[in-house]
């Protein structure tokens, strides 16, 4: 589902990723672990096409990133969901609108949208916030909205960048259980974190350790 070989990446003359190679099969769960500044966010951004792949090769959900056309990039983004470190929810829209949006743009039927959004919001304990505008939520609640929006489409691949960073321990562990449950339904998960407790919560997961831009 994700196949990376000899990927290197620089910002200007600062080499951020060095000769990174790894493969994640369909339905695998992997953590990308490493200290701040080690290149986790950069790698995730390359894998969903937000940064160009300039050296090496990477295939995500069947799309070879180096050769991707803009139409294929559009298709890639339908199969690959991303949870950004800074959530990027729409502040003036309600929780329901934010989570329903990706289903709405896919042309999903209204009754199915309502059903799926309700299930996902319940699993993330946001059922009391359905009609609340996101700007009125705490950081942790907004982060859960971002996760709900990412998983509601049942993506082939889920890339999550420190998704539990703003949550207290109980909520963070609960969120890991939600990811784990989605993974059991077949979504391949790659999750950046520097919290060993989150890693321990998913004993079947692989751990990719990244240090100074290299997988060690
Ligand atoms: N847009 C950017 N321009 C220049 N340097 C960047 C940019 N984004 C990240 N970097 C640098 O790349 C390195 C890796 O950053 P990042 O991928 O965000 O690491 P992590 O997510 O592991 O904390 C850091 O040294 C960071 O300063
Ligand atoms: Mg980061």
Description:
The protein is α/β, with parallel strands linked by helices and 216 residues long. It contains 7 helices and 10 strands. The chain has a single domain (2-215), classed as P-loop containing nucleotide triphosphate hydrolases (Rossmann fold, 3-Layer(aba) Sandwich), CATH 3.40.50.300. A hairpin with a 2-residue loop joins strand 1 (2-11) and strand 2. Helix 3 (95-105) packs across helix 4 and helix 3 (95-105) packs parallel to helix 5 (139-151). The longest helix has 16 residues, at 169-184. Bound molecules: adenosine-5'-diphosphate (ADP) and magnesium ion (MG). The site of magnesium ion has 4 residues, from helix 1. Residues 40-41, 85, 161 line the site of magnesium ion.
Helix and strand topology:
Blueprint lengths: L1 E10 L2 E11 L4 E5 L6 H8 L7 E6 L2 E2 L5 H10 E4 L11 H11 L4 H14 L15 H13 L5 E5 L7 H16 L3 E6 L2 H6 L4 E6 L2 E2 L1
Parallel strand pairs: 3-8, 3-9, 6-7, 7-8
Antiparallel strand pairs: 1-2, 1-4, 4-5, 9-10
Helix pairs in contact: 3-4, 3-5
The protein binds adenosine-5'-diphosphate and magnesium ion.
């Amino acid at each position: 589902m994700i196949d990376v070989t000899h990927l290197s990446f620089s910002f200007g003359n600062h080499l951020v990723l060095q000769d990174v190679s790894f493969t994640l099969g369909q339905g695998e769960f992997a953590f990308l672990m490493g200290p701040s500044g080690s290149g986790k966010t950069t790698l995730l951004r390359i894998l969903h096409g937000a940064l160009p792949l300039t050296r090496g090769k990477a295939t995500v959900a069947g799309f070879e990133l180096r050769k991707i056309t803009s139409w294929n990039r559009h298709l890639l983004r339908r199969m690959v969901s991303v949870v950004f470190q800074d959530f990027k929810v729409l502040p003036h829209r309600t929780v329901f609108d934010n989570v329903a949006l990706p289903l709405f743009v896919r042309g999903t039927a209204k009754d199915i949208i309502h059903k799926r959004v309700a299930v996902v919001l319940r699993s993330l304990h946001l059922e009391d916030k359905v009609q609340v505008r996101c700007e009125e939520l705490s950081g942790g609640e907004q982060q859960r909205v971002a996760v709900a929006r990412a998983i509601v489409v049942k993506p082939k691949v889920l890339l999550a960048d420190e998704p539990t960073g703003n949550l207290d321990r109980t909520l963070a562990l609960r969120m890991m259980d939600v990811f784990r449950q989605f993974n059991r339904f077949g979504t391949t998960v790659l999750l950046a974190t520097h919290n060993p407790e989150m890693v321990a919560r998913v004993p079947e997961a692989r751990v990719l350790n990244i240090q100074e831009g290299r997988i060690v």
